[in-house]
Amino acid sequence: MNKPEIEQVRFDAHEFSFTAPIYGYKMSQPFGEPGRLEAKVFEESGVPMETFEGMKLTGTRRFGRLTPRIKVAETQSGVRLSFMLNKGGYATTLLREFIKSEG
Predict the structure, then answer these.
(1) Which of 32, 48, 52, 97 is most enclosed, with most CB atoms within 10 A?
(2) Is the whole-model pTM more than 0.90?
(3) How many CB atoms lie within 10 A of CB 43?
């Protein structure tokens, strides 16, 4: 059995991440309580799985948090920001965090 105090340290160190569903007929299912919660949410949506098959939507899972690789460098004309995001990450969301101001 996993111990929450140990797993929290691993989570904080980015050794693993939770995932979120992108529903489809081949999407992998989580186990335990997360699986039960996702199944309940999907059931409450009222959308039958056959809908995804007819639309050929296979489904997948995505990481639930972003762990971008970011480089910031000073240049003669300002600052250069370069980064790599995992699939499912949005550059606009990352950039908004850099440009927002206090006040």
Answers:
(1) 52
(2) no
(3) 9
**C-beta of residue 86 within 8 angstroms of C-beta of residue 66:** yes
Domains of the chain, by residue range, sit at 4-63, 69-99
Residue 35's closest CA among 5, 7, 61?
61
Per-residue pLDDT of the chain (103 residues; tens, 9 = 90+): 678 888 999 988 888 888 889 888 889 999 999 899 999 999 999 998 888 888 888 999 988 887 888 999 999 999 999 999 887 788 998 899 888 877 6
